[in-house]
Automatic annotation (TrEMBL):
InterPro entries: Endoribo_LPSP/chorism_mut-like, RutC-like_sf. It comes from the Bacteria. It comes from Corynebacterium ureicelerivorans. PANTHER family: ENDORIBONUCLEASE L-PSP_CHORISMATE MUTASE-LIKE DOMAIN-CONTAINING PROTEIN (PTHR43760:SF1), ENDORIBONUCLEASE-RELATED (PTHR43760). This is LysR family transcriptional regulator. Residues 5-149 form the Endoribonuclease L-PSP/chorismate mutase-like domain.
Length: 151
């Protein structure tokens, strides 16, 4: 079902990003899967580094949040298969922000809108969009997902 939707949208799930520290990309607890924070890696490389509102524009960061969410979906898929997702429960988005930048919600919309495009009504989710001083590897964004599985 979701695999077909991804194909309709012309979206190919990337390989799961290799952890950059001591953790796993996703864990299953009962009927939920929680992903680790996913950076916007493309082919194993960060497309940009720096603070949003300084070195990285809000518009570019929106795209990076979308890529980080796609990487999180790939982690879910590798763990349980994306077609086993019943709904997306929560997105947590972190934005490495210049002190004057206050557009974190608009940046994390990149993740939210991708999730809604793929999962439709099942993609309606709770969310946090948090500005932080710095992220691992000086990434501009990081995204986590919590999904509920079909029973």
């Amino acid at each position: 079902m979701w695999t077909e939707r991804l194909q309709e949208l012309g979206i190919e799930l990337p390989p799961v990003a290799a952890p950059v520290a001591a953790y796993v990309p996703a864990v299953q607890v009962g009927d939920q899967v929680w992903t680790s924070g996913q950076l916007p890696f493309v082919g194993g490389v960060l497309p940009a580094t720096g603070k949003v509102g300084a070195e990285v524009s809000g518009e570019d960061a929106y795209g990076y949040a979308r890529q980080a969410a796609l990487n999180a979906i790939a982690a879910v898929d590798a763990r349980v298969g994306v077609d086993n997702v019943a709904r997306v429960l929560k997105i947590v988005g972190f934005v490495a922000s210049d002190p004057g930048f206050t557009g974190q919600p608009a940046v994390i919309n990149g993740a939210s809108e991708l999730i809604q495009d793929i999962f439709g009504e099942a993609g309606a989710h709770a969310r946090s969009a948090v500005g932080v001083a710095v992220l691992p590897m000086d990434a501009p964004v990081e995204v986590e997902l919590v999904v509920e599985l079909k029973r």
